[in-house]
Design brief:
single chain; mainly alpha; flat
């Protein structure tokens, strides 16, 4: 029953999202919000990595090749949700 309801609501929700445009004006030029979110997420993840190295928790992250990109994705999506969704 739940699946049928979600299938019926999907086209309506997609139509509601067509008016969303997250392109803020920065310095008079339009700049994509996703690119700004990636840059801010990268900076935040580098700050967290620096803090973790200083505290000594960096050695606990295994494998680092998965841990730090996931941290970057987390901060990127968090910044996008907080600042660029209406």
């Amino acid at each position: 029953m739940k699946r049928e309801i979600s299938i019926l609501l999907l086209p309506g929700s997609l139509l509601m999202m067509t008016g969303c445009s997250c392109i803020p004006a920065i310095g008079g030029a339009y700049f994509p919000a996703w690119l700004l979110s990636i840059l801010i997420g990268w900076v935040l993840s580098m700050i967290v990595r620096f803090i973790m190295v200083k505290v000594g928790l960096d050695g606990w992250i295994r494998p680092r090749s998965i841990g730090y990109p996931c941290l970057n994705v987390f901060f990127t999506l968090l910044v996008y949700l907080i600042f660029f969704t209406h």
